[in-house]
């Protein structure tokens, strides 16, 4: 069959390549999947047919005879937030390093039905495993209990919870080391696992220093929620025994809080020190530049991909404290 004949019939398929190369469709699949024990001349004929027909490898072809699509499913929530957005990018890179691709389905992470629908959509595409990004506690538990027939993990599963707690403890410990004894916190939504882990790490660090838990406000991860809290935080800071430092559970809430505090007439860090979490690429350009904690997100992604593929993966690096201008010794007793 000529190239024009194939084009006239529409999309070129595996059978077209097999017919042009004079081999079986199974042989074409083996060449596509780079399997061994194929004679060089046979491989060359198949590759030549692929080139001449303009055949594009797709997951259905890859799955023929291998029962794998080389695709991993990712269930994500709000990609407008820094964490989910960079998590997807990190997973895509990690999957590509492992010779895989990702397919992403977005869901309302607070809705078990929405997450299950996203999982069903990905499973319908024949994905080889599922990675849940920024999960809610209830929806992740529902997926793990569903027996979906493929491996499932979360981006920050296993020791990832420990690293999240350690990171939050680093931020609070830094504030303690500067001399702060009244430290408040802005935590994330309580039904997010990452928020719970970071909250637990901050509380543990305060207890280890012999300090009171301090005031605790809740945001929704966004800069807007940090700004919305600023008036209340400012009033508390101005009170006689108000906090001299605030540890925010992510950089975006810290950014909004800093902006709101400045609008309220407070200086950061002169009146109150602010620390964040995530070390997003813009953190160094906040005014003042934000003290924060960085996670090895690339390492977390590689661990998650290795977990669903059932192979050994290196542990991510520990969290790192990044000290910048938003924290200083307390300016008042």
Automatic annotation (TrEMBL):
> Which superkingdom heads the taxonomic lineage of this protein's source?
Bacteria
The answer to whether keyword DNA-binding applies is yes
| InterPro entries hit by this protein | HTH_LacI (IPR000843), LacI/GalR-like_sensor (IPR046335), Lambda_DNA-bd_dom_sf (IPR010982), Peripla_BP_I (IPR028082)
Which stretches make up the HTH lacI-type domain? 12-66
Q: Which Pfam families match?
A: LacI, Peripla_BP_3
Coiled-coil-forming residues are none
UniProt keyword annotations, A-Z: DNA-binding, Transcription, Transcription regulation
Kindly provide the name given to this protein in its UniProt entry: LacI family transcriptional regulator
* Species this protein is from: Microbacterium salsuginis
């Amino acid at each position: 069959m000529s190239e024009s004949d194939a084009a006239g019939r529409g999309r070129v398929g595996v059978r077209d390549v097999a017919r042009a190369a004079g081999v079986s469709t199974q042989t074409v699949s083996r060449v596509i999947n780079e399997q061994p024990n194929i004679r060089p001349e046979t491989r060359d004929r198949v590759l030549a047919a692929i080139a001449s027909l303009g055949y594009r490898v797709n997951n259905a072809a890859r799955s023929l005879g291998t029962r794998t699509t080389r695709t991993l499913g990712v269930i994500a929530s709000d990609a407008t937030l820094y964490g989910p957005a960079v998590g997807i990018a990190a997973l895509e890179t990690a999957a590509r390093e492992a010779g895989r691709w990702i397919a992403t389905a977005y869901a309302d992470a607070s809705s078990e039905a929405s997450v299950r629908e996203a999982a069903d959509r990905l499973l319908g595409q024949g994905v080889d495993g599922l990675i849940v990004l920024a999960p809610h506690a209830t929806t992740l538990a529902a997926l793990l209990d569903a027996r979906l027939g493929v491996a499932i993990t979360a981006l920050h599963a296993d020791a990832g919870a420990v690293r999240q707690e350690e990171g939050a403890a680093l931020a609070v410990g830094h504030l303690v080391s500067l001399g702060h004894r009244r430290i408040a916190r802005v935590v994330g939504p309580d039904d997010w696992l990452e928020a719970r882990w970071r909250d637990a790490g901050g509380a543990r660090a305060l207890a280890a220093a012999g300090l009171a838990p301090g005031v605790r406000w809740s945001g929704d991860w966004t800069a807007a929620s940090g700004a919305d809290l600023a008036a209340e935080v400012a009033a508390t800071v101005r009170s006689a025994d108000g906090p001299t430092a605030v540890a925010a559970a992510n950089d975006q809430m810290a950014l909004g809080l800093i902006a709101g505090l400045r609008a309220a007439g407070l200086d950061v860090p002169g009146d109150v020190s602010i620390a964040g979490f995530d070390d997003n690429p813009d953190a160094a350009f906040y005014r003042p530049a934000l003290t924060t904690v960085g996670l090895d997100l690339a390492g977390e992604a590689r661990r998650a991909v290795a977990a669903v593929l059932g192979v050994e993966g290196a542990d991510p690096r520990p969290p790192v404290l990044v000290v910048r201008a938003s924290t200083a010794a307390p300016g008042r007793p």
